[in-house]
Amino acid sequence: MNIALIAHDRKKETMVNFTIAYKDILEKHNLYATGTTGLRIQEGSGLNINRFLSGPLGGDQQIGAKIAEEDMDLVIFLRDALEAQPHEPDIQALIRLCDVHYVPVATNLASAEIFIKAIERGDLDWRSVRKTDMFK
Question: Which of this chain's residues are annotated to bind substrate (predicted)?
């Protein structure tokens, strides 16, 4: 699976701890992250991360492009809901793309853990469901 990892500044430490806790699951997949988050994850967990630009500098949009190309399977985006983000339109566009392309997106630690545990059990093989079959 291709998994995107994104975290706002005040959630980066939580993301690092998350990746350390679930390293044995995550290391079996292709991991992508925005710039600073990816660097922090690499340094903290030792996981191999394909890094994009920082979110406000276009990293969110780069991940969005992978979603639009049907090349992203899960997005874990630990958002800081208590602080306004200057690139909020990019964030909303990313989440909209997840909705349009049927990509699960976790926006908090609880939903991220549910998705990771589903991956571990093999329960998140959602790509086998064809979009056209969903509406018959």
Answer: 8, 12, 34-37, 54-55, 87
Q: Residue 100 belongs to a domain with what CATH number?
A: 3.40.50.1380
Query: Is residue 64 part of an annotated ligand binding site?
Result: no
Q: Is the pLDDT reported for residue 123 higher than 60?
A: yes
Domain total of the chain: 1
pLDDT in tens, 41-73: 999 999 999 999 988 888 999 999 999 999 999
For residue 116, give its domain range. 2-135
Q: Taking the model in full, what pTM does it have?
A: 0.90
Rounded to whole angstroms, how far apart are CA atoms 110 and 60? Answer: 22
37 is in an annotated binding site: yes
87 assigned ligand-binding residue: yes
Q: Are strands 30-33 and 2-7 parallel, antiparallel or unpaired?
A: parallel
24 is catalytic: no
Q: Which two tokens stand for residue 119?
A: 């991956």
Is 44 labelled as part of a ligand binding site?
A: no
Catalytic residue among 60, 71, 99, 133: 60
